[in-house]
């Protein structure tokens, strides 16, 4: 026997949030005014520390020598930008910034992925945790501390060069050779950030279905093949996401690190946008020039963040808004 | 009504608490007031003999002995009787806004506003510090003052650089103090500061206006001496070096004899206050970064002088020969002290008063060392030179609109400081040896079991800390004048020769300091050679537009080329093209502007 009872009309439940959204703001405010009150301090902080200072960007467009009110300084439009781009060092500091930052992103990410894959292969938990702890520790040290140590460690008469000398190789001027210095920066950044960067890839590796590995093992796949055909594809979306997000920081070559390690001998390849701003703007009292260069950097950075967000959505299906 | 605490009640309570916390956090100056009240209590406890003078804010004359010179617990007696210059004390005190440097104090009960200098300022001079900013760390005060200048919110009194002074005058932000100065400054102050004929007054004396008080010490910032390990020199049988080449010869001989690893201290700032190479450049009549007379009535940039190339050749030779640390480019001004103490080097330069490792202490710390002062090395034409002060000194200026009573009180403070210092023997104010230290029993000094004066619990360097921390009054070095230190050392000279029994306990204490005689000798050396060897930077005016536009990049260019020549990354001949490029990149324009200023200023 067939049940011929007509189906009851389906009423789709409208999500509560959608219902709220339809209410006029006045009604929402009446119902939830306390939530909005609690939001006020956060908004105030945002306004005072994030939006109010934006007014200071005016400094980039005026002639200001550090005395009197910025509002009274004469407007010179793009003059400070023209001064920077017309100067002898614009191309150099932008080029150095890009080279060092891209190097750090590419090699840093590769190293973090490699470390995560290696740690993932370790079966003995104690050893695994020890390696993770040791490799993550440098991330929590400031560049000031690391810089002071590395200047001695990498010096011409330091332990590293003594070891190099002991095996009959020529000494390396890590901090005094223009060709070596950027790679010294990149290497140290990898060493410092590799362990911490590996955490996210390890988490992604944990999410891979273990049955895939078991099936592959049954099919005769060795460790390398499992890694190549399961682990790497399994974390590809994470790799793509991180690569896209890192794009936004392509003009951040690591101010603190460069500042503590560079010297006039390696300005040619080590002077980056941030150190240039520090020297000219802060030490040289050229606040307007410093602001202009900083604004240029921020504008490019903003564009790159938008691009990286689009790329993350496109290739990794990652959206915030 | 339900007794249950609902979500809404909880949120209301949380909102109220957050609001209260925000309001409390926004309430101004609560902490400062509390601290000051606490300090007032402390001062009341410590200052046992306080003379209250009625009537405010009228200035009244009063000789006060405030800081107690007690017998202490030892039962020993002082055999000197410290007195103080007459001073107009304000009661209630005149308040001045002050920036303070923060230092580590020897005891938690002392701090920036509870220390001997502040006690004296308030109790003797009737000036109370109203702390508006406490700076922590090197350069913090500069940061603060830059921000305040930008905001147009100046402290009551502050020392400004030459460029800042010009900008502040141009913006009409400084008070003209001519009338108050003429009426208040004592004849002694005017004499010591050489008012109005001393050339340093040019910076603040404009027509009939006076925008500040000068501070000038001949040796200040140009007080470099050259030190050498004489014991090593004797071991290798060499005479005292007199040329840059002989510096190198000494270092080579020491290396060959296995006495040291390198020989000569050098760092990435070729010219700075500590371990500077300026005597080497000076020997060749050049001085990187300084504007020097061009012999035609104008100025030229010291880096471009031909002698720079000769000096770079010497420095490069030292680098190649391993006579300087091969990683010297990673060292800053103060990073080399350890290498002197660990005997990596035997030649170094430093200010006469010492450096971080304090060469004046070396005879005590390392009795087997024999450290001697070298003559400044001479170049091929027999010239010796060192970086020197341009005698323009600093200037302490008062913000526009400051109450004239406050200015008067501060100038009276200057009268007091100078009178006390210049007549320290008469007043028996033995702390003046330490630039105006207060010389308090139980702080600077104490009696030992033989009732002799010895170091107290907080001797040097604490004295300098409390003297250096206030930037708002005329404590040292704001009360400095050209013969400030020479006055002291000249007065002390006979004590070293005298029978100790004829001296009082305080005098014996001062000369018992192993540094005292060396200080007097070294200071005299610097003072006496200032005119002959000093190469001051002759430009101290406001930066012309050309300088604002080009100088930053040119400094980068200069540092880069000079250092690369020294380490051999660039050939020595690069210096010639560097000079041309420097001029082409805007340097010629700057030179013209700076020279025009020089001619106008000194015409």
Number of domains of chain B: 2
User: In whole angstroms, how far apart are the ends of chain B?
Assistant: 91 Å
- Return the CATH class of the largest domain in chain B: Alpha Beta
Quaternary state reads heterodimer
Helix count from the secondary structure assignment of chain B: 21
Which term fits the overall shape of chain B?
globular
Give the class of chain B from helix and strand content and strand pairing: alpha+beta
Structural class of chain A: mainly alpha
Strands of the widest sheet of chain B, in order across it, are 10-13-9-14
What are the main properties of this structure?
heterodimer; A: 321 residues; mainly alpha; MetI-like fold; B: 603 residues; D-Maltodextrin-Binding Protein, domain 2; 2 domains; three-stranded antiparallel sheet; 21 helices
Describe the structure.
The complex is a heterodimer of chains A (321) and B (603). Chain A has 321 residues and is mainly alpha-helical. Chain A has a single domain, classed as MetI-like (MetI-like fold, Orthogonal Bundle). Chain A contains 15 helices and no strands. The longest helix of chain A is centred in the N-terminal third of the chain and has 32 residues. The model of chain A has no long low-confidence stretch (mean pLDDT 89). With 603 residues, chain B is an alpha+beta fold. Chain B has two domains: 258 residues, D-Maltodextrin-Binding Protein, domain 2, CATH 3.40.190; 232 residues, Periplasmic binding protein-like II (D-Maltodextrin-Binding Protein, domain 2), CATH 3.40.190.10. In chain B, 42% of the residues lie in helices and 13% in strands. Chain B contains 21 helices and 19 strands. In chain B, strands 10-13-9-14 form a four-stranded mixed sheet. In chain B, helix 3 links the parallel strand 3 and strand 4. At the A-B interface, helix 2 of A face helix 1, helix 4, helix 5 and helix 20 of B.
